[in-house]
Amino acid sequence: MSQQLPDSIPPGLFAARAEAIADAARELALAGWTPATSSNFSMRIDAEHAAITISGRDKGKLGRDDIMLVDMQGHAVGTDARPSAETALHTQIYRRWPGAQAVLHTHSRTQSVASRLFARDGLIRLEGWELQKAIAGHTTHESVLEIPVFPNTQHMPELVARVDAWLDAGKPLAAYLIDGHGIYTWGRDMAEARRHLEALEFLLGCELDLRRLNA
Ligand SMILES: CSC[C@@H](O)[C@@H](O)C(=O)COP(=O)(O)O
Ligand SMILES: [Zn+2]
């Protein structure tokens, strides 16, 4: 299945984004955060398009041919390949944050356990951790970082509506968990998205440790 590109998209740009996605995915897979073909990754191409992982691929073994083009409504562009089952969550982020350039979704053990533990509260409240400063806009450990936990569903419009409702209520959002599923976060470039993901993995792990210690 070959990817045809609209004339407006330079092939070098798509190739560079596909390579950045595959590189990030390989490293995250090595960390054990993408078990059993789970997880999906994307990068913005322009205002109308994003490059995203093809559904069902082993995220530790991605090459350029495992990345495809979609429009911001989540439809495949220039290929018969099937985009990630969760494409709608990526394109929503690009629509709502014009500055977002990369979206990362992983299924680490820590993310999965934390999502189940905090689902009953509907959110995880992070406060007092120095590493909160790794999240864009947070300049002190004294700030409060709320990560919502949305119920899992295979029906993406439902999840999209929950994210919209959170944002439309005027609440800040740097990432969200899906109950029993995993995490979504994003950034103004791939490096920032990676930093957010790594910081959140660490912070969720610390919160779980505190509960294990009954602290
Ligand atoms: C293999 S179970 C995980 C999937 O159901 C899904 O949540 C996921 O993260 C990967 O789906 P994909 O369609 O490959 O992007
Ligand atoms: Zn998933």
Automatic annotation (TrEMBL):
Keyword entries, A-Z: Amino-acid biosynthesis, Lyase, Metal-binding, Methionine biosynthesis, Zinc
Cofactor(s) it depends on: Zn(2+)
Enzyme Commission number: 4.2.1.109
Binding site for Zn(2+): H105, H107
Superkingdom to which the source organism belongs: Bacteria
Gene Ontology MF terms: methylthioribulose 1-phosphate dehydratase activity
Entries under Pfam families matching the protein: Aldolase_II (PF00596)
Co-factor binding comment: Binds 1 zinc ion per subunit.
Domain Class II aldolase/adducin N-terminal, first and last residues per copy: 19-208
Catalytic activity field: 5-(methylsulfanyl)-D-ribulose 1-phosphate = 5-methylsulfanyl-2,3-dioxopentyl phosphate + H2O
Enzyme category, top tier: lyase
Coiled coil: none
Pathway note: Amino-acid biosynthesis; L-methionine biosynthesis via salvage pathway; L-methionine from S-methyl-5-thio-alpha-D-ribose 1-phosphate: step 2/6
Family designation: Belongs to the aldolase class II family. MtnB subfamily.
NCBIfam families documented for this protein: PRK09220.1 (NF006672), salvage_mtnB (TIGR03328)
Protein role: Catalyzes the dehydration of methylthioribulose-1-phosphate (MTRu-1-P) into 2,3-diketo-5-methylthiopentyl-1-phosphate (DK-MTP-1-P).
Entries under HAMAP family matching the protein: Salvage_MtnB
Protein name per Swiss-Prot or TrEMBL: Methylthioribulose-1-phosphate dehydratase
Organism: Rhodanobacter hydrolyticus
Gene name of this polypeptide: mtnB
